[in-house]
Amino acid sequence: MERLSSSDAAWQASSRLGGMGWIIKDPLNSLLLQGSSSRPFVTSALVAEALALKAGIQAALASGVPRLACFSDCKELVLLLNSDGHANELDGILTDISLLGSGFLSISFHFVPRSENAQADLLAKTALLSCNTSSLSGV
After folding, report:
1. pLDDT digit string (tens) for 35-79?
2. Which of 48, 51, 54, 97 is the most exposed place for a label (fewest CB within 10 A)?
């Protein structure tokens, strides 16, 4: 049975901080897993989106999900993945996603409007806020 993964990122250009969030649901839309992280030195919003997608894929693979449909509100990223596209800043991450994808019986990538990605968006924004708070307090 195919699982559904939604991912999103929040990025702050001035600090180059990124917050990533992902959610994995079953076909009946019940939450199975979710997670978030933040990191410094993220060079663009596109890189942050790719890192969020990669994190969701890693979590699904680690939990033994056999089939995965990945949803992102980043049209450019979905197009790159579905066309074996090339973007210099993403080459390593796209390669990682491809290698991780080979661990599934099937994996697919789909664009979803931002309005339908609110849960992952909230996780990403919360992670970014947490990263900003840590940076401000010197932690």
Report:
1. 999 999 999 999 999 999 999 999 999 999 999 999 999 999 999
2. 54
The 3-state DSSP class for residue 85 equals coil
Contact call for residues 21 and 7 (beta carbons, < 8 A) = yes
Supply the range of the domain harboring residue 75. 2-133
Please tell me the pTM assigned to this model. 0.92
The SS3 assignment for 126 reads helix
Q: 137 — phi, psi (to 5°)?
A: -90, 0
Residue 109 sits in a domain whose CATH number is 3.30.420.10
The residues pairing with 20 across neighbouring beta strands, listed in sequence order, are 9, 37
Question: Percentage of residues in the chain with pLDDT exceeding 90?
Answer: 83
> What pLDDT score was predicted for residue 139?
42
Maximum distance among all Cα pairs of the chain, rounded to whole angstroms: 45
